[in-house]
């Protein structure tokens, strides 16, 4: 694992985390022995193949499930969890609500008055370029626009920790890149901490300052931590830099594992 000298303090630490699911055939481990630190004000990615437990880790970090073993530790005053918001892979928009009322939903649940809800939602709808579509229903929106609505709904809660589960996986390549830029801009302006689950090596290398690589299943485990190049420039130009390709290749090698490396050596 790459060292973390000079890294900001961890907002969230996963310490010896494990999770098992119960069923008629007994208990099945989703992941085990997970140790990870999510630095304050950064984007951290968890990368791994389907079934390795990435989404289950995110659900535990969001407080949607309790771990079987280990604990979450938040480095905030009193140790209480910070405000958290989750963006799911399928957006999770309510089809019978408009853009505006979808964005307002977390505030409605929290008991915020209608005038305040509309004002807060309106700011984000404008910021994310959705003002002309505020009265539209999700069925009339493109995939990229639905993702913007989901992002606005998460941010209306003013979270300190944003948890994202494969948020751009269903978008076409151009929409995906546009949403990646939007996320970088918003994270930079707001200074929030982001934990991103993805199976895309390119996305993890482009967005994150730190990547945890998982392999295996039942249970999945973290096999490497890789920190981004220190001189990294955020923005589209990074895609053409040697540091980006080096970072991506480190992640790829960790995903492939020692067996794949030995096969490659034998072929030379």
Describe this structure in words.
The chain contains 7 helices and 9 strands, in the order E-E-E-H-E-E-H-H-H-E-H-E-H-E-E-H. Strand 8 (210-215) and strand 9 (221-227) form a beta hairpin. Helix 2 runs parallel beside helix 4 (143-155). The two termini are 27 Å apart. It has 2 domains: 10-83 and 160-267, Rossmann fold (3-Layer(aba) Sandwich), CATH 3.40.50; 92-158, no CATH class. Residues 260-268 have low confidence and may be disordered. It is globular and about 55 Å long. The strands form 2 sheets. The chain has a 6-stranded mixed β-sheet, with helices on both faces. With 268 residues, the chain is an alpha/beta fold. It is 36% helix and 25% strand.
Q: How many individual helices?
A: 7
**CATH superfamily label of the largest domain:** P-loop containing nucleotide triphosphate hydrolases
User: Going across the major beta sheet, what is the strand order?
Assistant: 5-6-7-3-8-9
- Tell me the total number of β-strands: 9
Quote the beta fraction: 25-35%
Unreliable stretches covering 5 or more consecutive residues? 260-268
Q: Assign the structural class, choosing from mainly alpha, mainly beta, alpha/beta, alpha+beta, or little secondary structure.
A: alpha/beta
Shape: globular
- Classify the helix fraction into a percent range: 25-40%
Average predicted confidence as pLDDT: 87
* Secondary-structure element series: EEEHEEHHHEHEHEEH
Named at the architecture level, the CATH assignment of the largest domain is: 3-Layer(aba) Sandwich
Radius of gyration from the CA trace?
A: 19 Å
The level-1 CATH class of the largest domain: Alpha Beta
CATH topological fold name of the largest domain: Rossmann fold
């Amino acid at each position: 694992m790459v060292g973390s000298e000079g890294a900001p303090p961890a907002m969230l630490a996963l310490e010896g985390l494990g999770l098992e699911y119960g069923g008629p055939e007994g208990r099945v481990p989703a992941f085990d022995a997970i140790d990870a630190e999510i630095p304050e004000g950064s984007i951290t990615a968890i990368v791994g193949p389907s079934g390795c437990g990435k989404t289950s880790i995110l659900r535990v970090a969001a407080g949607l499930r309790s771990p079987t073993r280990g604990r979450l530790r938040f480095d905030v005053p009193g140790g209480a969890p910070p405000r958290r918001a989750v963006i799911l892979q399928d957006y999770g928009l309510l089809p019978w609500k408009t853009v505006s009322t979808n964005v307002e939903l977390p505030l409605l649940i929290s008991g915020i008055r209608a005038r305040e809800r509309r004002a807060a939602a309106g700011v984000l709808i404008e910021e994310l370029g959705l003002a002309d579509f505020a009265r539209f229903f999700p069925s009339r929106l493109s995939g990229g626009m639905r993702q913007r609505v989901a992002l606005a709904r998460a941010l209306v809660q003013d979270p300190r920790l944003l948890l994202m589960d494969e948020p751009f996986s269903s978008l076409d390549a151009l929409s995906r890149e546009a949403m990646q830029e939007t996320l970088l801009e918003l994270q930079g302006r707001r200074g929030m901490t982001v934990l991103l689950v993805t199976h895309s090596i390119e996305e993890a290398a482009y967005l994150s300052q730190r990547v945890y690589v998982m392999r295996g299943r039942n249970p999945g485990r973290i096999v490497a931590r890789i920190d981004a190049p220190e001189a990294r420039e955020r923005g589209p130009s990074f895609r053409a830099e040697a540091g980006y390709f080096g970072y991506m290749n480190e992640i790829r090698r960790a995903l492939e594992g020692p067996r794949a490396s030995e096969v490659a050596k034998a072929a030379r």
